[in-house]
Design a protein that fits this description.
- The chain has strands spanning about 5-10, 20-25, 35-40, 80-85, 90.
- By secondary structure, it is mainly beta.
- The strands form 2 sheets. The protein has a 3-stranded antiparallel beta sheet with strand order 1-2-3, with no helix packed on it. Strands 4-5 form a two-stranded antiparallel ribbon.
- Strand 4 (about 80-85) and strand 5 form a beta hairpin.
């Protein structure tokens, strides 16, 4: 967690968990209220991603017992939706 509390990072250079070597979760609410950026990098620049319509992401913010949920629509659907392929996802 950054000193300002607006960024959390995970690093594992060996990629021991499914080849993931870096994860960054960043508060982007100064750009737009409620905006969050999630960045995931894989070992040697690649990780095995599932089909975009099968992706499920859970991020917990706040104290235990607090939660928020977003249901992403499939590619081509109304926003919020995720588009992507085997190398990159963009969810807006």
């Amino acid at each position: 967690m950054s000193p300002r509390g607006d960024r959390w990072a995970y690093t594992d250079r060996a990629g021991m968990h499914k080849g993931i070597v870096y994860v960054l979760v960043r508060d982007r609410s100064l750009v737009e209220d409620g905006r969050v950026r999630v960045l995931v990098k894989g070992k040697n620049g690649a990780i095995s991603l599932p089909r975009v319509d099968g992706v499920r992401i859970g991020v917990l913010f706040g104290a235990p017992g607090e939660c928020a949920a977003v249901v992403w629509n499939p590619p081509g659907g109304e926003p919020p939706r995720c588009e992507g392929n085997g190398t990159r996802y963009v969810c807006k």
